[in-house]
Design a protein that fits this description.
Layout: E1 3-8, H1 13-20, E2 26-32, H2 38-45, E3 50-52, H3 61-74, E4 79-82, H4 91-96, E5 101-105, H5 117-124, E6 128-135, E7 145-152, H6 159-182, E8 186-189, E9 192-195, E10 206-207
Parallel strand pairs: 1-2, 1-4, 2-3, 4-5, 7-10
Antiparallel strand pairs: 5-6, 6-7, 8-9
Helix pairs in contact: 1-6
The structure holds 5-O-phosphono-beta-D-ribofuranosylamine.
Residues 8, 10-14, 83-84, 104-106, 131, 167, 170 line the site of 5-O-phosphono-beta-D-ribofuranosylamine.
Length: 212
């Protein structure tokens, strides 16, 4: 059985969706860079091993990333899933886990990288917004795209209502992407995402939910 770890910094709703999806693998740890992350208690309650690598305990970004990488490797992880992990990772870290380091971002990349994506979507006036699961590369929020889900932007939307609608889709597509990788149906090849065509549900590339 393949092993995966989930990295969080906060409430961990994507982590919950991943664990509840009963992926074909073992979650060998939920790791947080913040001791107070609410998701840690939820994971522990499910019997998933948890640990904290507190970024504040390290003098430099490099030192933190080295300790984090060591913890991930100690857990025997084949796959590293960033789920609301609010730290920019250094290039050596990203290279070390290339092809097995995945993130979820709350926008339809390449639109709106970085923070405050829902505010930016409203400000820009896009009619379609969403989320993206992608392999992580050294450039922030730029890696090869695995799955996206789109939602309409409504005239009545606030950043909060839009975030809620996007988050519901995050909880669908992140487990789909993780399942694809763990089953060997999805991989990174020469910088591009390859899905094995006969095993890929159309929905696993772009999910456009009907009015919900
Ligand atoms: C999600 O919107 C995710 O896309 C972003 O941070 C948020 C984390 O939420 N990277 P949660 O901790 O998974 O609930």
């Amino acid at each position: 059985m393949k092993k995966y770890v989930i990295l969080i910094s906060g409430r961990g709703s994507n982590m919950q969706a991943l664990i509840d999806a009963r992926l074909p693998g073992v979650c060998s740890a939920v790791i947080s860079n913040r001791p107070a992350a609410a998701g840690l208690a939820w994971a522990a309650g499910r019997g998933v091993p948890t640990c904290v690598v507190d970024h504040q305990a390290f003098a430099s970004r490099d030192d933190f990333d080295t300790a984090l990488a060591a913890e991930i490797e100690r857990r025997g992880a084949d796959l590293v899933l960033l789920a609301g992990f609010m730290r920019v990772l250094t290039e050596p870290f990203v290279r070390r886990f290339e092809g097995r380091l995945v993130n979820i971002h709350p926008s339809l990349l390449p639109a709106f990288p970085g923070l405050h994506t829902h505010e930016a979507a409203l400000q820009t006036g896009v009619r379609v917004h969403g989320c993206t699961v992608h392999f992580v590369t050294p450039a922030l929020d730029c890696g090869p795209i695995i799955v996206q889900a789109a939602v309409p932007v409504l005239a009545s939307d606030t950043a909060d209502t839009l975030a809620t609608r996007v988050l519901a889709q995050e909880h669908h597509v992140y487990p789909q992407a993780a399942r694809g990788i763990l089953e060997g149906c999805c991989r990174l090849e020469a910088g591009r995402v390859v899905w094995t065509s006969d095993t890929t549900p159309a929905e696993a590339v772009l999910r456009v939910p009907a009015e919900e």
